[in-house]
Specification:
The complex is a heterodimer of chains A (227) and B (330).
Chain A (H helix, E strand, L loop, with lengths): L4 H4 L1 H19 L2 E2 L4 E2 L10 E3 L4 E3 L11 E3 L4 E3 L11 E5 L3 E2 L10 E11 L5 E7 L3 E2 L5 E2 L13 E7 L17 E6 L3 E13 L12 E9 L2
Antiparallel strand pairs in A: 1-2, 3-4, 5-6, 7-9, 9-15, 10-14, 10-16, 11-12, 13-15
Chain B lengths: L3 H26 L4 E6 L2 E5 L5 E10 L5 E12 L7 E4 L11 E2 L5 E3 L4 E9 L7 E11 L10 E15 L7 E8 L3 E2 L4 E9 L9 E6 L5 E7 L10 E9 L9 H7 L6 E9 L6 E9 L2 H36 L1
Parallel strand pairs in B: 2-10, 12-18
Antiparallel strand pairs in B: 1-3, 3-8, 4-5, 4-7, 4-9, 6-8, 9-10, 11-13, 13-16, 14-15, 14-17, 17-18
The chains are: A mainly beta (227), B alpha+beta (330).
Chain lengths: 227, 330
């Protein structure tokens, strides 16, 4: 009796099937080590990295459906192809210290203390950090230090405010009073690594009018990816 | 026996030790107090009324100490300022998904250098209206116990924005609240446009449009894309988009000087227009401004003046030399 094609070539069919499936599993996986992760890869026939002073361009050949243009509508966008793929954007925020101490205020000088927030994100639209407070800088008994209103905390006046410094700082030009409603202290419009913004807290007092004692406040920085 | 060199060696050793200790102290004590990473930054998902699902965030602790995580779900809205402010609130805003989402209980311990899934459970109400819904999940190390006297306590939170779309009959209504330039006349480019856009519908929108600039004869001289970053506007929220008409070489080396010296592609009275919304319900805004490139014009006039002067002198020399030649011929 003649053996069927399936029976006759059973071993070869199994072998070929395994050979076909194994690379598929291999190529679909995320490759990673301690220091890097390749989140997506492709088997292609060409492509290179072209650069000029202002631009860098990655391209590849033979990527079916990999048109460099996006399909868009009012509410949606589709970036197709291998080149358009990217990992889920993440955002990291580091705060150098959680406690700001302005010490003992005097009428002869502006007391300052500062700390730094460092943000890293691969989000294509960047990030924004806002600052909010739980109320005024106050003592136990309902006395407040007035938020600065003239753009500069000056010695000899009852004033309190902050100023930022750093490329992404948004309050770099004048002192501003921290408020419960909040405002932006740092932002970037694209991916950024170790974006450092220093926030300097300042307070001063007049020779009269401020009740002696300890003044305190809680401040929250919220960092969010732009969308 | 000479003791001088031995003492000097001791002093050197003590100095080296001090430098080493300062170095070690700087390394170990300047570590950030909070260092969390959250993934993803924005979650966009189509959902159906009555659907129940999980959104898995990833949180990593980048410190060398364990932290206790806490989280909260907030309503979000956008501020009509130029930067991308998101306002977080406990009060539900229009189409807020704040009540749909439950975050894990506070107190999850995250070991140093570890990443953990941070699942949010979402239950879409069966009566959820079609359209765009939103909320934000704010994750932070355990809140501070109390504000100590005489100090300002600072806490860091990182947020993931959640944008859900419920299918059905939705309203798409895009409006222009204002369309302005920062000046009414310019000596040269760039011209900065500001488009205050209102999403008056019920869906999230990503307005992508062009500002069309025409010269005094009505000819299109430039088209400036708006919102190339593909930013989203929440329903019943407004956002300001900034776009600039600039020279193509504005970002090159010496671009500022070139921009000042080179005459722009068009000048005189300009008209800029922008349209938002679908063609069946679109809105167009128009403005005019003047572009008078004074510096290149003054330079050009000066060169013309010098050339005329040179021509006049050359002509006079020619006239003076002509009688002299005639005299010599005689």
């Amino acid at each position: 009796m003649k053996k069927s094609f399936l029976r006759k070539n059973f071993e070869q069919i199994i072998l070929v099937t395994l050979l076909l499936l194994y690379p598929a599993k291999l190529f679909a996986s995320v490759m990673s080590s301690t220091n890097f992760a390749i989140y997506v890869d492709t088997v292609s026939v060409g492509g290179l990295r072209s650069t000029s002073t202002n631009f860098g361009l990655f391209d590849n050949l033979a990527d079916v459906g990999g048109s460099p243009t996006s399909s868009t509508s009012t509410s949606y966008r589709v970036d197709s192809g291998f080149i358009a793929s990217s990992p889920d954007p993440s955002i990291t925020a580091n705060l150098s210290t959680s406690n700001i101490s302005l010490g003992t205020l005097s009428d002869s000088a502006v007391r300052t203390d500062s700390h730094t927030i460092t943000v890293t994100t691969n989000s294509p639209t960047g990030y924004t950090t806002t600052m909010t407070t739980d109320g005024n800088l106050r003592d136990c008994c309902g006395h407040n230090i007035t938020g600065v209103g003239d753009g500069s905390v000056s010695a000899g006046s009852n004033e309190y405010g902050i100023r930022t410094s750093g490329s992404e700082g948004q309050q770099n030009s004048s002192d501003i009073a921290p408020s419960a409603s909040g405002f932006v202290i740092a932002s970037a419009s694209g991916p950024i690594t170790s974006s450092q913004t220093t926030i300097t807290f300042k307070a001063a007092m007049a020779s009269a009018g401020l009740t002696p004692g300890s003044y305190s406040q809680s401040v929250t920085y919220t960092t969010v990816g732009n969308f | 026996m000479k003791t001088g060199p031995i003492v000097a060696a001791h002093i050197k050793m003590i100095r080296a030790c001090l430098i080493f200790f300062v170095f070690v102290a700087v390394i170990f004590f300047s570590r950030p107090v909070y260092a969390l990473t959250i993934t993803p930054v924005v979650v966009r998902r189509d959902v159906k009324p009555g659907e129940v699902f999980m959104v898995s965030l990833q949180v990593r602790n980048d410190l060398n100490v364990s932290v206790s995580l806490s989280s909260e779900i907030k309503s979000i809205s956008q501020s009509p300022s130029t930067n991308s402010v998101v306002i977080f609130s406990d009060t539900p805003s229009f189409h807020s998904a704040i009540s749909w989402i439950k975050s894990p209980k506070d107190g999850i311990i995250l070991e140093p250098g570890k990443t953990i899934p941070y699942p949010l459970s979402v239950r879409v109400p069966t009566a959820a209206e079609p359209g765009g819904w939103s909320a934000a999940a704010l994750v932070s190390p355990k809140p501070l116990i109390a504000t100590s006297e005489g100090a300002i306590q600072v806490q860091e939170k990182i947020a993931t924005v959640l944008l859900f779309s419920v299918p059905g009959e939705v309203v798409v209504q895009e409006r222009i609240k204002s369309f302005t330039t920062d000046k009414s006349w310019y000596m040269n480019l760039p011209v900065k446009f500001s488009l205050d856009y209102l999403n008056n519908g019920t869906v999230h929108t990503t307005p992508m449009t062009m500002i069309t600039i025409r010269n005094w004869r009505g000819k299109i001289v430039s088209e400036i894309p708006v919102n190339q970053e593909l930013r989203t506007v929440l329903p019943k929220n407004e956002r300001v988009f900034i776009a600039s008409w600039r020279m193509p070489f504005a970002n090159d080396a010496f671009g500022l000087i070139k921009t000042l010296l080179v005459i722009p592609p068009a000048w005189g009275k300009m008209t800029a227009s922008v349209t938002v919304g679908p063609s069946v319900d679109s809105q167009t805004a128009t403005l005019t401004f003047w572009l008078i490139p004074i510096v290149p014009i003054v330079i050009a006039l000066f060169i013309i003046f010098i050339l005329l002067l040179w021509y006049r002198r050359a002509l006079m020399r020619l006239r003076q030399s002509a009688p002299a030649e005639k005299d010599s011929e005689r």
